[in-house]
Amino acid sequence: MELYDINRQLEKEIARYTGAPYCVLIDNCSNAIFLTLYYQNIKGRIVVIPSHTYPSVPCEIIHAGGRVAFMKSETYLKGAYHLAGTRTIDSALRFTSGMYKEGSFMCLSFTGPNKIFKLGKGGAILTDNKKAYKWFKRARFSGRNECSYHEDNFDMLGWNFMMLPEVAARGLALIPSLYNPDGSPKHFEDVCLPYPDLSKFKIYDSGNGCSSGL
After folding, report:
1. Which domain holds residue 28?
2. How does pLDDT run across 29-87, given as a tens digit for each residue?
3. What is the strand order of the sheet 192-194 is part of?
4. How many domains does the chain have?
5. pLDDT (tens digit, 9 = 90+) per residue, 89-120?
6. Cα(169)–Cα(55) distance, rounded to whole angstroms?
7. Does the reported pTM lie above 0.90?
8. What is the CATH number of the domain that holds 19?
């Protein structure tokens, strides 16, 4: 078995459970969001997100070259939401059977004690776009193909965002918990968590030409 075969197996299992044609494992949801935004070339574009969300989300928009606009929202965030103006969905608080939304890049989180699929660390991208899938696979692996770097042809820049195989192994061990005894997939309710009002912080708009308070 090759080193990352365990990752491929977990990707297939998550794709099957969520109804997505393709799944790409990432080391965390924040980096999954960044990769999907970078792939869409959002440089200079305004991306609208809830004012109460996880602090890494506006960071990833800015790192990908975009501009943040906050939409007023409630303190508690539940489930998944679109990053308006993109195909990216922040699904850090949703993980259930058949959840995939056609045409989207759904970014999952398995990090922390409040998540449904508790790997301790990790995330994933769900997609039905084969071209994007192939790009995400290499982008998360320092631009590499899934082979020895002694045999690779280095022709793409990337990032070190690969989920560790030992984390993926834990995921495979937890896959049976997603199904009922009769083999049918379980449905899980969305997680609901409180977040700070990020629209109050200058760091997300200072020097970036961002708007806020929509």
Report:
1. 5-146+155-204
2. 999 999 999 999 999 999 999 999 999 999 999 999 999 999 999 999 999 999 999 99
3. 22-26, 123-127, 105-109, 88-93, 76-82, 192-194
4. 1
5. 999 999 999 999 999 999 999 999 999 999 99
6. 29
7. yes
8. 3.40.640.10
